[in-house]
């Protein structure tokens, strides 16, 4: 999963108008691209031992978070944001007083960089730092930078400085493709916030953006809010499955894996019972998004959101989803018959298949057909072994080695955070990955990639090296064993490392389009592609060793695991089609022809097949409507592209260096600096059609165990 900062009304792309970094010294200041370090150590060993005490510093210097001197204490965020805001004012003044040209784009990018170096870092710290003072200071920095961005969004003079460049055909023709694309992206971000409108409409656009931001935050909080019901309304024997406070039972989720049908049914009906306030919030959010889209010149919010994506428009998305649904329908019916058969076998008195059944019963079928108990696999997947596996893969494919580097005092926020230097065999140091992998109190329970600083070519010709954080929630090592991963955890590690390598290998001139700062339906391609490698026996056998005996993971265990993932895979994919279709309809033509709940019912029955349960409103728990509004289809489309890249380029030989270099050159190197479909074409040597995407996804359902893709999202 990608985490990206959305500033003001400019958040239609991965990181808004200003996606970068700010006037912070440090963050690897002074690093040169071919520098080597004597402090690097092998990556595998570093993750299978507890972190040592920080290196002795005779002068007692405290570098600050990520090596930024100002951030040795929470108060440093105020200094950092003040420096960034001062620099932003100077850059705005400079760009507004100079004639238009390529330099205009460079200054816009530097402005973006200066603000987002604070914003991106603060956005991570505010949720991940264990100390409240740091979290609160980071939150304040986010607010401060956000206020500045709102000012920039409405700065007509700043907008006109870019408009003059793009209005001059001769100047535009003289720009190289990347510079032209970045200029157009900045202009797009300006115009979706309404700056090209007259003063009254511009104010309306600003007000709508503020309202949408507030509604988004309120809705997001509501998606996770527990439901409660009086104890006497539930059978007493299922109370123990839930939290109980006083006279109420608290339901905090769907309990989809609970063996008791009644527990799952109760959780489903109570957790999804419509909340009037949340329903009103969703309706207002969708309505205001539509108003904003129309105000800035789009027929629907979906048309606005899909600008610049692989799909390009909602009509293409719906064609993709409908064709995929048609291809899946027979397989989905068979899946449901198989699940219904298992339910009838275990619960003959109540064998009607309901929406709360598939996750549990498909798991039962997998366990019955294949012996895939995670505890059998964990000893082969120590964290150190998995990291060494990634290292082997990257070395063979891309000529890249991961080295563990000891952080200096104050550089990391928790002592178990590891720092990796990413080093190319001829180009030298490419960037840094901070690995925040272990569980701790109050840490968000999500696997994420955060950009802390993106790459860009600086004025002095040096390259600003990217810095990212990978956040997982792995168990700590014990006295008797290192951290051991389940197969799902191992796959998630590979997935997130795919995002990290996208960030490391992007070598764009502009940080606005660095690494993962690209359209959503392309951004997940590198991470999903890594899942294919994680499920290929030729790759797994390179590193999966029993942590005690050194025995390799037997091939038949990989076979069983991957074959088990095919169980009910069609119905799982059909569920994703339903969610994506619902998202498109909600962000399509307004006013909606009926209530969001009626639309849910109709869409569920048409695109999923299991009956709608009266008095439920699943859409009120659909948190992706905030961050992925009109873009939920992106997971499926990215998976289709990744599938095609795997089959065309890596299935025959997952360690093919020529294919790896082509992958870097055609896809990873450009970040968002090139149209996504052009990158896909360059890699596949053809322009794929919607039918090609659908065929790729459907054929994955039939792959043998060596090439089968396991779902991880």
From TrEMBL:
Cofactors required: Zn(2+)
Cofactor binding note of this UniProt entry: Binds 1 zinc ion.
Gene3D superfamilies: 1.10.1370.40, Collagenase (Catalytic Domain) (3.40.390.10), Neurolysin, domain 3 (1.10.1370.10)
GO MF terms, alphabetically ordered: metal ion binding; metalloendopeptidase activity
Domain Peptidase M3A/M3B catalytic: 255-697
Name of the top EC class for this enzyme: hydrolase
Pfam families xref list: Peptidase_M3 (PF01432)
E.C. number: 3.4.24.59
Residues forming coiled coils: none
GO CC annotation terms, alphabetical: mitochondrial matrix
Keyword Kinase: no
Keywords: Acetylation, Calcium, Cobalt, Hydrolase, Iron, Magnesium, Manganese, Metal-binding, Metalloprotease, Mitochondrion, Protease, Transit peptide, Zinc
Compartments (UniProt record): Mitochondrion matrix
CDD domains: M3A_MIP
Annotated catalysed reactions: Release of an N-terminal octapeptide as second stage of processing of some proteins imported into the mitochondrion
GO terms classed as biological process: peptide metabolic process; protein processing involved in protein targeting to mitochondrion
UniProt entry tagged with the keyword NADP: no
Family, per entry: Belongs to the peptidase M3 family.
Role played: Cleaves proteins, imported into the mitochondrion, to their mature size.
Complex and partners: Monomer.
PANTHER family membership: MITOCHONDRIAL INTERMEDIATE PEPTIDASE (PTHR11804:SF79), PROTEASE M3 THIMET OLIGOPEPTIDASE-RELATED (PTHR11804)
Name the UniProt record assigns to this protein: Mitochondrial intermediate peptidase
Species for this entry: Enhydra lutris kenyoni
């Amino acid at each position: 999963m990608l985490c990206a900062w959305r500033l003001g009304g400019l958040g239609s792309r991965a990181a808004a108008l200003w996606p970068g970094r700010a006037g912070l010294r440090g963050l690897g200041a002074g690093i040169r691209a071919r520098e080597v370090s004597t402090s690097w150590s092998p990556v595998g060993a570093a993750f299978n031992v507890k972190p040592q005490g920080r290196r002795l510093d005779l002068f007692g210097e405290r570098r600050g978070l990520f090596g930024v001197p100002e951030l040795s204490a929470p108060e440093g965020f105020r200094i950092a944001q003040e420096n960034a805001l001062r620099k932003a004012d100077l850059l705005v003044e400079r760009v507004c007083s100079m004639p238009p040209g390529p330099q205009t784009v460079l200054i816009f990018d530097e402005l973006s960089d200066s603000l987002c170096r604070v914003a991106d870092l603060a956005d991570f710290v505010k949720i991940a730092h264990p100390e409240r003072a740091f979290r609160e200071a980071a939150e304040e920095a986010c607010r401060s930078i956000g206020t500045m961005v709102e000012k920039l969004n409405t700065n007509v003079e700043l907008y006109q400085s870019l408009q003059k460049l793009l209005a001059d055909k001769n100047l535009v023709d003289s720009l190289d493709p990347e510079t032209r694309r970045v200029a157009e992206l900045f202009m797009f971000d300006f115009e979706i916030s309404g700056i090209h409108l007259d003063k009254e409409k511009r104010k309306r656009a600003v007000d709508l953006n503020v309202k949408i931001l507030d509604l988004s935050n309120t809705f997001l909080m509501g998606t996770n809010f527990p439901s409660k019901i009086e104890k006497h309304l539930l059978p007493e024997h299922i109370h123990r499955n839930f939290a109980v406070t006083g006279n109420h039972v608290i339901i905090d989720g769907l309990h989809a894996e609970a063996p008791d049908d009644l527990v799952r049914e109760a959780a489903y009906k109570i957790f999804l019972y419509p909340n009037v306030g949340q329903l009103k919030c969703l309706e207002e959010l969708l309505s205001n998004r539509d108003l904003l889209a129309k105000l800035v010149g789009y027929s629907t919010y979906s048309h606005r959101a899909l600008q610049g994506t692989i799909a390009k428009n909602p009509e293409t998305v719906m064609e993709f989803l409908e064709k995929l649904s048609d291809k899946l329908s027979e397989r989905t019916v068979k899946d449901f018959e198989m699940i219904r058969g298992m339910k009838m076998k275990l619960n003959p008195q109540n064998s009607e298949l309901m929406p709360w059944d598939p996750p549990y019963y498909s798991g039962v079928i997998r366990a019955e057909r294949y012996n895939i108990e995670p505890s059998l696999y964990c000893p082969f997947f120590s964290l150190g072994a998995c990291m060494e596996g990634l290292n082997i893969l990257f070395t063979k494919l891309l000529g890249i080695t991961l080295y563990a580097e000891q952080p200096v005092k104050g550089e990391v926020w928790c002592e178990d955070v590891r720092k990796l230097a990413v080093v190319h065999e001829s180009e030298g140091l490419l960037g840094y990955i901070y690995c925040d992998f272990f569980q701790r109190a109050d840490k968000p329970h999500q696997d994420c990639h955060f950009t802390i600083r993106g790459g860009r070519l600086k004025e002095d010709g040096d390259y600003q090296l990217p810095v990212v954080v990978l956040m997982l929630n792995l168990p700590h090592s014990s006295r008797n064993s290192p951290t051991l991963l389940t197969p799902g955890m191992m796959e998630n590690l590979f997935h997130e490392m795919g995002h990290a390598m996208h960030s490391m290998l992007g070598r764009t001139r502009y940080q606005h389009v660095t690494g993962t700062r690209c359209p959503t339906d392309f951004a997940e391609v590198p991470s999903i592609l890594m899942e294919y490698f994680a499920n290929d026996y030729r790759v797994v056998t390179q590193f999966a060793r029993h942590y005690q005996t050194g025995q390799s993971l037997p091939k038949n265990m990989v076979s069983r695991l991957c074959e088990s993932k095919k169980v009910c895979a069609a119905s799982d994919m059909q569920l994703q089609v339903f969610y994506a279709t619902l998202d498109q309809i909600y962000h399509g033509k307004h006013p909606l022809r009926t209530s969001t709940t009626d639309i849910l019912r109709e869409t569920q029955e048409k695109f999923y097949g299991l009956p709608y349960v009266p008095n439920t409103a699943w859409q009120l728990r659909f948190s992706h409507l905030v961050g992925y509004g009109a873009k939920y289809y992106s997971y499926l489309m990215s998976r289709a592209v990744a599938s095609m890249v795997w089959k065309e380029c890596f299935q025959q030989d997952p360690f093919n260096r020529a294919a790896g270099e082509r992958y870097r050159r055609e896809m990873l190197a450009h970040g968002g600096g090139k149209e996504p479909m052009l990158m896909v074409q360059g890699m596949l040597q053809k322009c794929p059609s919607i039918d090609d995407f659908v065929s790729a996804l459907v054929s994955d359902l039939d792959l043998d165990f060596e090439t089968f893709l396991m779902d991880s999202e």
